[in-house]
Write a structure and sequence with these properties.
Layout (H helix, E strand, L loop, with lengths): L2 H27 L3 E3 L8 E4 L7 E4 L6 H5 L8 H17 L1
Antiparallel strand pairs: 1-2, 2-3
Helix pairs in contact: 1-3
Length: 95
């Protein structure tokens, strides 16, 4: 892959992650992220924005299609990003 294609790929990845980050922030702000009540502290449930009633389980991986199909984003779907944001907020509140 030449340098121009590498740069385009990197820009595309940044844009894709930024879009997911914005949606992740929306999920957290709307209260659609919460720690799973009957599990260890690393398991979160994140409600779907697009499929009414769907909830994704997020640990160190997410169960959504985006996380499993889009390998170029290294598993950073909007649900995983929302879990990270929510977890950071919880940690800051406890400090």
């Amino acid at each position: 892959m030449d340098m121009a294609n590498t740069n385009i790929t990197q820009v595309w990845r940044i844009e894709a992650l930024y879009a997911r980050l914005e949606r992740a922030r929306e999920l957290v702000a709307s209260g659609k992220v919460y720690q799973s009540p009957n599990s260890d502290s690393d398991r979160y449930l994140v409600e779907s924005q697009t499929h009414k009633g769907a909830v994704y389980t997020v640990t160190d991986v997410c169960t959504c299609n985006d996380a499993s199909i889009r390998h170029e984003l290294t598993g950073l779907c909007k649900h995983m990003l929302a879990r990270i944001i929510y977890g950071n907020q919880e940690h800051e509140e406890m400090s």
